[in-house]
Amino acid sequence: MKPDVNVVMQGFFGTMLGEIAPHLNAEYSMGNIGVMSMMMFMTAEEYDRAADIRATENKEMRSLFSHASTMVADNALKAKLAAASAEKEGSLRITALNARNASLCSLLIELQSHVEESDAPWARSLEARIWDYLVAATERRKLPLPSFG
Length: 149
Prior knowledge:
Layout: H1 5-20, H2 27-69, H3 75-86, H4 94-117, H5 123-141
Helix pairs in contact: 1-2, 2-3, 2-4, 2-5, 3-4, 4-5
């Protein structure tokens, strides 16, 4: 798409914050413009990276599930993990990626609960791998703040 959504949104951000907000007299209006401007900046950033983040997370969770399915003794959970690990993305649309991501996250919670309750020798290493994934996912989703300098 030309012009790019992130370029347009960041342009709006700059115009609203740099040109419109200084000419407003009411603090409430200035505050609203400031919040809307920040949301535009963050929306631009999220637009640019959303599919990549979700596809990466989905791929990493599937890899984790493939590994976990070789260890977990619970047959029902093992089957869910194996099925999820074999899936492929059906669409790269954000709504589809979000839906798959939510489903995979639910399975991750189920796996983590199972692992935390387990006394099996493999449980601690799998728990550590889950936490490594969660930390990496959190880092990926951080939104940067704009630079004004």
